[in-house]
Amino acid sequence: MRLIVTENYEEMSYLAAQETAKFIKENPALVLGLSTGGTPLGTYQELIKLHENENLDFSKITTFNLDEYIGLEPKHPQGYTRYTWDNFLSKVNIQKQNVHIPPGIFKDEKQVLKEYDKKILEVNGIDVQILGVGGNGHIGFNEPNQFLHSNTHIANLTDETIKDNSRFFLNINEVPKQAVAMGVGSILRAKHIIFIASGDEKADAVRKTFNENITTHCPSSLLQLHANLTVILDKKAARLLN
Question: Do 32 and 94 form a contact (C-beta atoms < 8 A)?
């Protein structure tokens, strides 16, 4: 594990983008795993700058999102499909057919889950996964539980996650209770993971991730097992680390 502690969110975002860009330059046909939420927004903004100012090329990049809320249309303002396009992909030269995001509305649950895993396998897995962490230690929507799913699955969101994500909705009752989520197996099989976290509210989750025992009750603690992990934190998120 390589640990980088930065002064603030802006520096964290800049360094995460630089790290991602390094891998893209080494492999222009990279398979890139994308996360959502507030934390990676700055990283995506920095990657857009690199595309605009330094011609960072996304034309051969393939992307896979970690998750999508069940019940939200692709154009829903709080859906992760729209989030990803609005905040990142529409502003770089990626090919639409190379973008993979789980559907939020579907008829055949088993088929949707099977097809997403099949697509990941067809490209030999994720090369670089950008990954944040929830306040309860969830990665993607792999929530704390006695057992975790290796493959793409239907995730039941915890009350804590629903409360955390309610800030993006008009009220807590609008937050979906389930999501299609990439499994921890697919995440951990990524060849490299860039883990980012910022702010005081993530400090305890970061501590449990790296300073406590590995447990399914803190899914992010499984990252201790990963051989190629870059951790980029601002000093507020890192304040409880030993």
Answer: no
Percent of the chain whose predicted confidence (pLDDT) is above 90? 93
CA distance 198 to 201: 8
Catalytic residue, candidates 51, 68, 127, 138: 138
Round to whole Å and give the CA distance between 88 and 188.
24
Take residue 104 and report the two structure tokens written for it. 């939020």
**First-to-last CA distance in the chain?**
15
Q: Is 213 a catalytic residue?
A: no
How, if at all, do strands 178-181 and 153-156 pair? antiparallel
- Which pair of tokens denotes residue 231? 């951790």
136 labelled catalytic = yes
Identified catalytic residue from 127, 143, 164, 234: 143
Q: Which two tokens stand for residue 218?
A: 């803190």
- What's the CA gap between 217 and 208, in Å, rounded? 10
Active site residue 143: yes
User: Which residue bears the tokens 């030999």?
Assistant: 124
CA 210/CA 205 separation, integer angstroms: 9
What is the Cα–Cα distance from 77 to 89, expressed in whole angstroms? Answer: 15
Q: Which residue from 217, 237, 200, 39 is spatially nearest to 142, judged by alpha carbons? A: 217
Question: Per-residue pLDDT tens for 10-46?
Answer: 999 999 999 999 999 999 999 999 999 999 999 999 9
- Respond yes or no: is residue 117 known to be catalytic: no
- Strands 62-65 and 99-100, by their bridges, are parallel
